[in-house]
Amino acid sequence: MPTTGFTYLRPLTVADLIRDLAEPGAFALAGGTDLVPLRAAGAITPAVLVDVKHVAELRGVETEGDAIRIGAATTLADLGERDGRSLDAILDGAKIVGAAQTRERATLGGNLCRSSPAGDTLCGLLVLDAVAELQSLDGIRHVPVRDFFTGPSRNVKKPSEALVSIRVPVREGGSAYRRFTYRRSMDLAVVGVAAWLSIEDGVCVNAAIAIGAVAPTPRLVPAAAETLVGTTCDDEAIAHACEHVVAASSPIDDVRGTRDHRLRVLRPLTRDTLLLALTRALGSSPP
Amino acid sequence: MSSDEIGAESTATRRTVLRAGVAAAAAAPIAAGQDTAAADTEPAGTQTGPARVPLKVNGRLHEPELEPRVTLLDALRERIGLTGTKKGCDRGECGACTVLVDGRRIKSCLTLAVMQQGREITTVEGLAHGERLHPVQAAFIGNDALQCGFCTPGQVMSAIGCIEEGHAGSDAEIKEWMSGNLCRCSCYPNIVAAVRQAARELR
Ligand SMILES: Cc1cc2nc3c(=O)[nH]c(=O)nc-3n(C[C@H](O)[C@H](O)[C@H](O)COP(=O)(O)OP(=O)(O)OC[C@H]3O[C@@H](n4cnc5c(N)ncnc54)[C@H](O)[C@@H]3O)c2cc1C
Ligand code: FES
Ligand code: FES
Questions:
Q1: Do B180 and A102 touch (CB under 8 A)?
Q2: A12 contacts B98? CB cut-off 8 A
Q3: A19 contacts in chain B (CB < 8 Å)
Q4: What is the CATH number of domain A7-51?
Q5: CA of A103 to the centre of ligand 1 (A)
Q6: Which of A170, A183, A257, B77 has the highest local Cβ count within 10 Å?
Q7: Residues A219, A220, A226, CA angle at the centre, nearest 5°?
Q8: CB-based contact A5 B14, cutoff 8 Å
Q9: What is the CB < 6 Å shell around ligand 3?
């Protein structure tokens, strides 16, 4: 057990937040559900912990123009209580992270910044084309989530940058996220899949598919999505998409599952997720 | 409902700083843009040490001397002496440490005590009124929902949250929303029965 101490800071404005994060060895602290146990285990040794939960700009969900803006420190419990169609794939993930007590603390920004290959909101953020707003003393930059991850638990965010918000464009269509776990809850995804489908007159006009826990990072599979465009998402088209998904995955053997098992689960899970997204897309399109 | 934490502390200042020998600092609120000078007046370095952390537990204000790294669970058990809240795993997996903060259930091993300053913390010790048990406590006894009892304080606190949230409508819903609380004695059927009964009584 490391005995190194740290300083706890609680800024109330974005200006103070980014100044505090510029201190050497500073880490943002949101819900702490990843960070507190990681620090206790000595996996990280922060010199300063900057509590982001008291900055107003980082809390809450609002519609801003043609996008939905989610404050980075919005808890998964608060998100899960929404029933916004346009966020379905993200909410499907937010609702199954840990247990009720975990979601009361855990934040969407924390899930994104942790960047676990198995993070349950990440595939949803990918298919819904979310954009991360990062801010530091050097200014603001907007990074699409598709360009955010660089490896397992690694991303493009610099330690001095705060994730302020996540913007999700409002679009037509239906989306979904499903994961496979051995236990129904309190387990991490062995495999996760998210899908978004836009349907016009029964034909798919746009699509996105993302996979989690079967590659070093959650990732989009554009080739799989492309096979669906122009089809009615019939069995054949979906089977075709599943082939591309399997081809794009590179699962490993680890404590939660073998490579072989992951590959075996991936196909039916992709199919189920696509069918759910399709049902939702048809439900939301005008009669 | 939004468990908004902003503005929860009337005494909140720009930053709550815990450093060696410095009590929870009360730097005057500083407008954005003009704070560089203020930063320089703060002690340099990141040496850390204990400071008084005001924690409101079961309606009573405690001010234990805490280092920022102390979890709420350890603060409750080891510094305040409320040992009803149990430590099973200390990493968020078992639920034995569940307490209510501003009426919402959380795992106290996953949060630092300094993060919970100014909030209403309720532990199992704060439930009974004298000899009169909380309906959830009574339901656990009535339904024989425990064997060794180690998980019980966490189960009871979680059950109160579960019922309060409106997630105790059916056995399936209770199982789903109580899934963060493990019981090594596997009293699950009786726990579900207790939550079901308490939910009826509390509604
Ligand atoms: C028992 C248990 C079960 C879990 N189950 C799941 C699960 O099923 N699925 C899943 O996906 N995850 C799970 N997790 C992991 C964790 O709960 C989630 O990743 C959660 O979303 C993290 O959010 P947080 O607010 O607690 O992050 P924190 O722990 O506060 O932070 C995580 C990381 O993100 C950084 N960070 C956070 N916010 C910001 C910000 N605004 N700006 C810059 N950096 C920031 C921190 O510096 C840190 O590196 C589980 C954890 C536990 C303990
Ligand atoms: S001790 Fe906190 S969840 Fe196990
Ligand atoms: S009663 Fe023994 S662990 Fe639950």
A1: yes
A2: no
A3: 35, 39
A4: 3.30.43
A5: 10
A6: A257
A7: 160
A8: no
A9: B 146-152, 183-185, 187
Using a 6 Å CB cutoff, which residues line ligand 2?
B 87-90, 92-97, 107, 109
Q: Where are the domains of chain B?
A: 52-126, 135-202
Where does chain B have alpha helices with state H?
Answer: 36-41, 72-74, 135-142, 152-164, 171-177, 188-202
**What digits encode the pLDDT tens for the residues A237-274?**
999 999 999 999 998 888 888 899 899 999 999 999 99
Q: Where are the domains of chain A?
A: 7-51, 56-169, 174-284
Residue type, A231: T
CATH class held by domain A174-284: alpha beta
ipTM: 0.90
The domain made up of A56-169 is a member of CATH 3.30.465.10: yes
Type of residue at A143: V
SS3 A75: strand
Residue-wise pLDDT tens digits, B61-103: 999 999 999 999 999 999 999 999 999 999 999 999 999 999 9
Does CATH place domain B52-126 in 3.10.20.30? yes
Question: Taking the model in full, what pTM does it have?
Answer: 0.90
Within 8 A of B74 by CB-CB distance, chain A residues are none
Phi and psi, residue B48, nearest 5° = -120, 150
**Tokens 């939910």 belong to which residue?**
B199
- With a 6 A CB cut-off, is B93 part of the ligand 1 pocket? yes
| Chain B residues in contact with A12 (beta carbon < 8 A) | 12-15, 29
B33 closest CB neighbour out of A15, A47, A185: A15
Question: At residue A284, does pLDDT exceed 80?
Answer: no
Q: How far is CA A258 from the centre of its chain?
A: 23
